[in-house]
Design a protein that fits this description.
The chain is an alpha+beta fold. The chain contains three helices and seven strands.
Length: 154
């Protein structure tokens, strides 16, 4: 299993950063390799990605979500296996820290080599930087979902 953790400070209040992250359908605007995300239900999304020429479709399910604090998810079904969490921390009135943690199982030679040489680390770092630019440039979120999803416990 591979893992990436990346943190970025953004010059917007924590509520603005969190609200924007709940707008999954805007991810292609700042995440490389993400062609589209369709929100199927408040807790389920359908992703279409294309990375290194490999196109994949998969579904994710929100497993925990708390306003202005965290969003956790995992893939469900399909041949893509990953999970992650994004946490939000208030630094002061007008700035916040966003930390992204992704865990995944690379499949195929290209993904395994990419994970081994740090391609995924660079991609996530670039995506968080683009999120910073996206939200700071806008100054406000494109929408918000303020629901709460209690942690999925076995």
């Amino acid at each position: 299993m591979a893992q990436v953790v990346e943190t970025v400070d953004v010059d917007v209040p924590v509520q603005v950063a969190y609200n924007q992250w709940t707008q999954f359908e805007t991810f292609p605007e700042f995440m490389s390799g993400v062609e589209s995300i369709t929100q199927v239900t408040p807790t389920r999304n359908h992703w279409v990605t294309k990375v290194s020429g490999v196109r994949r479709e998969f579904d994710t399910e929100i497993t925990e979500q708390h306003q202005d604090e965290r969003i956790a998810w995992r893939t469900v079904g399909g041949d893509v296996e990953h999970a992650g969490v994004v946490s939000f921390h208030r630094l002061d009135e007008g700035s916040s820290r966003v930390t992204v943690q992704l865990d995944w199982t690379p499949s195929g030679v290209t993904e395994k080599v990419g994970a081994a040489v740090g391609v995924d680390d660079h991609r996530v770092k670039a995506d968080t930087k683009r999120f910073k630019e996206f939200i700071e440039h806008r100054g406000a979120e494109t929408g918000a979902w303020r629901g709460d999803v209690p942690r999925d416990t076995p």
